[in-house]
Design brief:
It comes from Sphingobacterium zhuxiongii. By secondary structure, this protein is an alpha+beta fold. The chain has five helices and eleven strands, in the order βββαβββαβββααβαβ.
């Protein structure tokens, strides 16, 4: 299959890679139909994320069609269209039971401080991401969500990261009806956080833009 391939800082290629295989009975294999390039991927591209290894495929925002399922997967079937959140989590143990899926210790043997993330270095588990024709998705009954009939691929794709990240930022801000809100940063997440602030009832929302200074 064709996949994005990291060759070092500021160097990426499209390369042939072996098709992913079921490695655990809870895995699914997804044929990717849409994938994004996230702003966070630029940190990887620039070599700013520790333990980003040559040969890695990026991509933590993707949707697709289920093409193969492990023997223990119960909630999905071949042919289902699903969106996949960027965090990889087991859904069973301490952090997952508290809703802290980003800290799932079962999904990432490489670190005790962060759970698995698709396409985001070996620090985050070394999983290949979705900027490829196919991707292996662990814990098929936990993360993937069926895409409802009538929802466009583009709308579903935004639900893998941008919308829930902006929404959770607004939610954690404790916004109440009539509040004045300032969002610092006008990237996709900042813009989504601003829109969600209105959803929560804010009366005024300002977005502050600024430039990062490279040191």
């Amino acid at each position: 299959m064709k996949a994005m391939n990291y060759r070092g800082p500021y160097r990426v290629r499209i390369a042939e890679k072996p098709l992913p295989e079921i490695q655990h009975p809870q895995d699914i294999i997804l044929q990717v139909t849409r994938a994004c390039i996230c702003g966070s991927d630029l940190h990887l591209y620039r070599g700013k994320v520790p333990d980003t290894r040559v040969g890695t495929t990026f991509g933590h925002e993707f949707i697709g069609v289920v093409r193969e399922i492990g023997t223990q997967v119960q909630n999905l079937k071949i042919g289902d269209k699903v969106l996949v959140p960027f965090n990889i989590s087991c859904g069973k143990f301490t952090f997952c039971l508290q809703g802290l899926y980003a800290y799932c210790q079962e999904s990432n043997a490489m670190s005790a401080t962060v759970g698995g993330v698709f396409g985001y270095s070996h620090l985050a588990g070394g999983f290949d991401g979705g900027q490829a024709e196919y991707v292996r998705v662990p814990y098929g009954d936990v993360g993937p969500v069926l895409i409802p009939e009538g929802m466009s691929d583009e709308d579903a794709l935004l639900l893998t990261d941008v919308v829930p990240t902006g929404y959770s930022a607004a939610e954690m801000g404790g916004i109440k009806k009539g509040d004045t809100v300032v969002v610092f940063g006008a990237g996709p997440i900042g813009i989504m956080a601003a829109r969600c602030a209105w959803l929560f009832g804010a009366a005024r929302v300002g977005v502050a833009t600024f430039k990062w200074r490279q040191i």
